[in-house]
Amino acid sequence: MSHNQLSRRMVLKSLLSGPPLMSAQIGSTEVWDVHCHLTSVAGETPEARMTELVRFMDRLGIHRVMLSLGFPLLENPPPRQLREENDQVLRALRRWPKRTLGFVYLNPNHVDFSLEEFNRCVRDGPMVGVKLWVAKRCNAPELDPIVERAVSFQAPILQHTWLKVNGNGPGESTPFDIVELARRHPRAMLICGHTGGDWERGIRVVRASKNVWVEIAGSDPTSGLVEMAVRELGAERVIYGSDAGGRSFASQLGKVMGAELETRARNLILGGNLRQMLAPMLRAKGLA
């Protein structure tokens, strides 16, 4: 076994066994997770579910998560359900204001209502970004008003993407779709969720789109993902996310902690890039 393989196994083992080695590996870096949900978490209320997530965040040294989506989760929520899910996230933010930030969940099938929700939750509320899931592919023109509104407030957009061998769902976006959207909106800050699942293809697809970042959440913790993303895109376009509670913080953090990276690149991925992206929004809201 090589030294690099041994180092990776030690780090991954530490993720499962407790915080001592993990704390030493992360050091003083503040880890910010761009992709976190209340779904698939124990608890009857948003406050209880967020408290459960914070318990695991403390074990893994994760300082803050970007929270979106409530429960029960619907792929194409009508306005009433969309507002209810955003209200659940707002409740979790109020309970844990120093450990959470919110991304408003919007549905491009209800554009006017989505713009109202953006104003309520981002412009006039505490949220700092937009979450789009699988209601409509993100290359559709219906997304344009939503993206324009986000750009006007310098709010990033986290868009679920996947490349499935048996075909995507009818509203499920791919990295090719987000590249189309990025071309129409060059000032938008677009985050390619899951790096398309098939990350070797996803990284190559978005490589030329400078306003698209990749986040590493959701797929199995296969070695090589983060190294390839840094090599092809630069560390400045790679963001850590977990997709917790659907995935564990530990397995997703292991992708970064087990990667062959320089310290600067690791720090950018674990939180530096996301903090820089959110800086204008945080300043506008009076947050440090």
The CATH topology annotation reads as TIM Barrel
Separation of the first and last Cα atoms:
45 Å
Work out the strand percent. 5-15%
Biggest β-sheet strands, sense, barrel = 8 strands, parallel
What is the CATH superfamily? Metal-dependent hydrolases
Shape-level CATH architecture: Alpha-Beta Barrel
Element-by-element helix/strand order = HHEHEHEHEHEHEHEHEHH
Strand adjacency order, main sheet: 1-2-3-4-5-6-7-8
Total strands: 8
Mean pLDDT: 92
Assembly level:
single chain
Overall structural class, as computed from helix and strand content, comes to: alpha/beta
Number of DSSP helical runs: 11
Number of domains: 1
What is the structure about, briefly put?
The protein has 288 residues and is α/β, with parallel strands linked by helices. It has one domain (3-284): Metal-dependent hydrolases (TIM Barrel, Alpha-Beta Barrel), CATH 3.20.20.140.
